Amino acid sequence: MKKNKIIPFIIVFSAIAFIELFGGCTKIQHGYLSPFIAYQATEFTVVAGRTTFSTTLNLDGSTTPIHAKWLHFYDSTGKNVDAIFSKKNLVDIWTAAFDPKSDLSFDQISAKLQKDTLEPLSVSEESGVITSNAGSLNLPLGTYTMDLQVSNPEGTEVLKNILKINIVHGNPMETDPQVGTFAVGWALANQAQVNYFYNGPNIPYLKYTINRISDQPNLLIVKVMDKNGVPFNPKSGEIKGRPNTGLNPNPPYLQNLEAYAPDTYETTDTSMSVKFPLAPFPTASLGNGYHMYYNISASAVIVDSTSKWSGNSAGNYYQGVSDPHYLGVFTPGVVDYSVRFPLRIYVPGTYEYTVKLLNATHR
């Protein structure tokens, strides 16, 4: 009988294939971890003391979920500065969602906050996003680099110098032009429609000063004064909210300090003040950016009448009767003086914000 030579060949071939397939494997794959993971932007700038977010990681096809954490920080000379970035600070953190339209009182906002000790920069384990907090105010200004460790079921990658981090100075409180623009004008007494003297950059009719008095408490004091430095009296109603336009408008007045802190708003003969639970303040805009709108009562002010400015250069201010734009004064008691000023506080503390109106005289 003739032997079948094909069957033994198939058996031998199958055995070799089996050995190659199973006997040659030294590792079972659990996914993929790229050595080329990178941030979408390779530079991250933090204004000291403010909350800022970096871009997310580009995982380059790596299997998720990942686990990310910072390993080391280095200064511009290459020196390890882990001790600086690992130092924890007491900061406020949110424990519930914030609603700017309903969470207005000091107690309502405080109820959604708690104190925690955090490093000045934290890395999200899931996304790698870096978040700065108020504790970053304690970081030395300068340029740093960071090593990041990323892990998943496949293994671990150490990504050297993955990100350049710039810690820069920022004003603890900002106004024009960073968070809005000044504007001044006139309106018939107790009317909403405003005719602007000037509404734009480099306002010639207004000067201001901002002083950070102390680290505590969180308090903002605002003074509005005439060209001679005489303050208008909020307590007696010389300064009042600006009426909103339209028929039965809601809200009836444009945004002001009282709208942002109704329960802590107080007035004296010379100033308005609000106590706020955390920075930034305002936490979120109620509309019209971070502008505060006020009118000065016609009974309290004499308003210069001027020709319209087409524009202005920085440092050029209205000079009163000697100014070529001066036309005279409005009939006393006929027009309110309207002023709009922007503000936002980024670092906790006590501030005094003074606004001086160069075309207004206290009666």
Structure description:
The chain has 363 residues and is mainly β. The protein has two domains: 38-168, BT4661 domain 1 (Immunoglobulin-like); 173-362, no CATH class. The protein has helices at 6-23, 82-86, 106-110, 257-260; strands at 38-39, 43-47, 57-58, 67-74, 89-94, 113-118, 121-123, 130-132, 142-152, 155-168, 173-174, 183-188, 195-199, 206-214, 219-225, 239-241, 266-267, 272-275, 291-296, 301-306, 326-329, 335-342, 344-345, 350-357, 360-362. The strands form eight sheets. Strands 13-12-22-19-16 form a five-stranded antiparallel beta sheet, with no helix packed on it. Strand 9 and strand 10 (155-168) form a beta hairpin. The termini are far apart. It comes from Ginsengibacter hankyongi. This is DUF5007 domain-containing protein.
